[in-house]
Amino acid sequence: MKQKVLKKQQNSKKCLVCGLKNDLGLKASFYETDMNELIAIFNPLEEHQSYPGRLHGGIAGAILDETIGRAIMIQDDTIWGVTVELNIKYKKPIPLDEELRVVGRITKDSKRLFEGTGEILLPDGEIAATAWGKYMKMPIDKIADFNEDEQEWRIVSSKNEPTEIEV
Ligand SMILES: CCCCCCCCCCCCCC(=O)SCCNC(=O)CCNC(=O)[C@H](O)C(C)(C)COP(=O)(O)OP(=O)(O)OC[C@H]1O[C@@H](n2cnc3c(N)ncnc32)[C@H](O)[C@@H]1OP(=O)(O)O
């Protein structure tokens, strides 16, 4: 099924998942879609391996965590979540050096907490890992000394941004 891209989300400077100036990071891009889901696209490198040729499970957890944690920003981009629980099921080995898609959505939202689920998809669309996470909503100034400009928290568009993503 194709999902229509409505908006790209911000990247940052040094985050392991979204930092564009983190040489060892995933440099993932995040897209909000017309299905109220968030889709991450990234290319894991050799540096992200566990066994040769296989993505490290912790890295798979990191991209799932951030995709679910950012999905809350579809409805309100001023809500920041810190992960309080994360459960992952690894179903298939995840390859390196190939473009991968991760889908996340919010399943429960209350005043102080939200929950969501997500999946990492293999290039052929098969589900390689699933996750459920719970997050506490916190004001950004209680999480970190955060300055948008210093952290380069901004939407970075390239020439070939997708308008639709197959999931
Ligand atoms: C430049 C930026 C780049 C990055 C951008 C990324 C975008 C976003 C990406 C996001 C993705 C990546 C995100 C990351 O990677 S975030 C990094 C990983 N996560 C953390 O670092 C969180 C660490 N934990 C804490 O800081 C504290 O434990 C917090 C602040 C969460 C609570 O400690 P605090 O001492 O303040 O609170 P409390 O213990 O008195 O509890 C307070 C209340 O909360 C309830 N409670 C607590 N835990 C749970 C639970 N598990 N289920 C249900 N409820 C829970 C508790 O019952 C109590 O309720 P009540 O009794 O008052 O009713």
From TrEMBL:
List, for all copies, the residue spans of the domain called Thioesterase: 53-126
Q: Which GO terms describe its biological process?
A: fatty acid metabolic process
**What compartments host this protein?**
Cell projection, Ruffle membrane; Cytoplasm; Membrane
- Is Signal set as a keyword in this record? no
The EC number(s) given in the record are 3.1.2.2
Q: Which UniProt keywords apply?
A: Apoptosis, Cell membrane, Cell projection, Cytoplasm, Fatty acid metabolism, Hydrolase, Lipid metabolism, Membrane, Transit peptide
Q: Which InterPro entries match?
A: HotDog_dom_sf, THEM4/THEM5_acyl-CoA_thioest, Thioestr_dom
Q: What class of enzyme is it?
A: hydrolase
Q: Which PANTHER family match?
A: ACYL-COENZYME A THIOESTERASE THEM4
UniProt protein name: Acyl-coenzyme A thioesterase THEM4
> What is the scientific name of the source organism?
Desulfosporosinus acidiphilus (strain DSM 22704 / JCM 16185 / SJ4)
